Amino acid sequence: MYGEEEFISSDDLVNVRLVGGHSRCAGRVEVHHRGQWGTVCDVGWDLADAAVRLVGGSRCSGRLEILHDQTWMSVCDAVFDQQDAEVVCRELDCGAPVQVLGAAAFGKGDTQMWTQEIQCRGNESQIHLCPTSPSHENNCSHDSDVLLVCTEIINVRLINGNSPCSGTVELFHRGQWGTVCNVGWDLADAAVVCRELDCGEPVDALSDAHVGLGLGPVWMNNALCAGSESTLKKCGSVIWGFQSVCQSKSAGVICSGVRLVGGSRCSGRLEILHDQTWMSVCDAVFDQQDAEVVCREL
Known about the structure:
This protein is mainly beta.
């Protein structure tokens, strides 16, 4: 049976290693189970985590940091150019670079500085695959941190719903929109979709009996989201990344379209999503009955 071996239970997560790679964050996956290291079947295996993140902005914009020898390092703008930016945005699944900045728009870093010249051609899949060489730039400081803005491609959408924040989940992969099987689909999975679409909190995780059948291939079968992931593509799956067949129905979500800001999950300043813009609510137009609906919805 294909796809079985790539399932990793939460108990096994601390017993995973990467071997044969060019850094500690790349290589062949091995899992320690029953006293022995074994490999993971590559059927449906996709989307390894990157060894770059962008700090201080959004998922696809911020101050660039690179993981080197188990240490996160800021990058000096004197050693970074447009080709390097193209690789970073691609590695983060964020499309193309819009702007490379050299000022502290996202705040100054407090990490060590990466000062080697990065010499990407621009077509590499990861920044660690690019050649490097010593730089003649000796006055790098956190005033010259690289700040990067990428286009942030939308990789998930909701269709057939009665609002922009509800509907059948579709995932963009390999140039095509496809569906997510609702086997194992729950509120943790829905929470990731609502967060990725900036639609507030999850209200319900649905099957297509409620929201309509999706079209295209099934890209994800039995999603394994913890609920804290920034995007659905970062979630695990029993079968992921190829045109599988779902014997059940397509997954769907209803997101709240409301949120409470500046407090906790259940307290704070009320904001409502309208025409893709979060808007505060005037207390003159809001009463106890309205509050009961918001609290129930959240």
